[in-house]
Design a protein that fits this description.
about 270 residues; alpha+beta; six-stranded antiparallel β-sheet; globular
């Protein structure tokens, strides 16, 4: 082979190598330019992925957290705060953050979970459980709506069929057992109400289906006060445990870990 041919081959190899280097350099530059756009922070990505109702519920839980933590009540909902205020008044900050819990669970059956805030009475394994509910909120018409609340003298619990049971009263002569059902529009439908009311020869037990404890608008039953109290106890015994997340973990956990719960409850 002539000297000129050798030189041409060397020149061709050099040109091919240069083109490959440029191609690889361009490939690396293109990839580096794309990756930062795809690598969104996890918190930002999670916020974008969260449903609207979850974002709005988070504001409510955050306001409860701030209230328990430092007493700030500016953003605390006007309705549903009675039991939460009791907890803050009678428990230390650390105990309240540990014992107050929150969860999402579809109790209306419309496929959108409700926000439940309640008292954690026991821990089993990694789970936290309790029966007492302090506040329930639903999401309807594009906003959060108050549903019901419980406190020391008015126990609010959930039954296996998702009915809500309230046991309370204003004194010995007036005790109440209300069974209600949350409707998809956010209102409470009354299933039945039993209550005691004074009459000439003692106390009578009355029943109606409007959940208004007025003797004149109700039917007197043949139930004794003792039987009425036994029925109240039976409802309490058959109420269901709710799995909560401790309020103390809200800032770092949010609603993570609740997907299984409210999907299985909502169907």
């Amino acid at each position: 082979m002539t000297g000129g041919g050798v030189m041409k081959r060397k020149l061709l190899k050099s040109m091919c190598l240069a083109m490959l280097l440029v191609a690889f350099a361009g490939y690396g530059t293109e990839k580096n330019a794309v990756l930062p756009q795809m690598n969104l922070p996890k918190t930002e990505a999670a916020a974008k992925a969260a449903p609207v109702y979850e974002q709005e519920y988070a504001k409510v839980v955050d306001s409860v957290y701030e209230f328990i933590s430092d007493g700030t009540s500016d953003n605390l909902p006007e309705q549903g705060r009675t039991g939460i205020c009791e907890v803050r008044n009678f428990a230390s900050r650390e105990a309240a953050l540990q014992q107050l819990g929150y969860t999402l669970q579809d109790i209306s059956g419309d496929g959108v979970p409700e926000l439940l805030i309640g008292w954690i009475s026991q821990k089993r394994g990694v789970g936290h459980y309790g029966k007492e509910i302090y506040a329930i909120y639903t999401f309807a018409d594009g906003r959060v709506k108050y549903v019901a609340e419980g406190w020391s003298r008015s126990s609010l619990q959930l039954m296996a069929n998702d009915n809500l049971v309230t046991r309370g009263g204003t004194g010995i002569s007036h005790q109440v057992l209300a069974v209600e059902r949350l409707q998809p529009d956010g209102s409470l439908g009354c299933y039945e109400l039993y209550f005691t009311w004074p009459k000439d020869d003692g106390l009578g037990v009355y029943r109606n289906m409007t959940c208004r404890s007025e003797a004149d608008a109700s039917q007197e039953t043949d139930m004794t006060v003792e039987e009425f109290n036994e029925m109240r106890s039976e409802y309490a015994n058959h109420s269901v445990e709710i799995e909560f997340l401790p309020l103390k973990d809200f800032k770092k956990q949010g609603f993570k870990g609740l997907m299984r719960q409210y999907l299985s409850a909502g169907g």
